[in-house]
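Troubleshooting: if your tokenizer reports a length mismatch, compare your output against this known-good record of 266 residues.
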Amino acid sequence: MKRLLTTVAMLLWAQTSGAEEMRMAVTTSFDNSGLADVLLPAIKADLDLDVRLLVVGTGQALRLGEAGDVDAVLVHSKAAEEEFVAAGHGTHRREIMYNDFVFVGPKADPAAIVDAASAADAVQRIEAAQAPFVSRGDDSGTHKAEQKIWASAGLDIAGFGDWYRPVGAGMGAALNTASGMNAYIVSDRASWLNFGNKGDLALLYSGDPALFNQYALLPVNPDKNDSIRNDLAVKLEAWLTSPRAAALINGYKINGEALFVFNATP
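Known-good structure output:
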């Protein structure tokens, strides 16, 4: 219960008299990136709309949408998102931006993944070396992507030893664990770039098309209950797909490196 309360952390923006408010479930990777600190004040200024973020993993975010506890969901697991919409929980799926997943690990790189030919090759090398590996283990979009990579390499995590450590935590907490253990981990690029406790870790492998990481907005079906503000979700969607949002998303950088690329279509 304590872990759940920690994971389901809320980022609240102070309400101004007359401002409307909506609830949106977002991934921990989106929150850890720092992009919310750029977008939410601009949304407030442009739309007089307070967006209250419920920061959870993708799986939990979709469950909040399914329960009708939020007005919209912003997550990054296409297959799960399409199932959500097909089941009638969301009105549609709108792609907003992307980045990629990366392999982070000890600078000494005992599994030599810096020389890997693919993401599948990278995890095969980690498994062969029995090198410590931290997994989100929380049904998040990042966790789902990691599981897909192991499967593509023909490896079953159920048979792994204690070198494989599922932590059941958000991206920032998982990165902190990896830093403390000097272990390998799969992270979204934005969270890694914005992470302040890198220790002896470094970005060791990226670039495989399998590591593509798309974020999408899913307005929740207003038929679920009368409290769902689909009108505000539609209003937010129009803003998130606008030139104003594109400039802010593409312009958000750390040490000169962009964290996201806007790719919403008109």
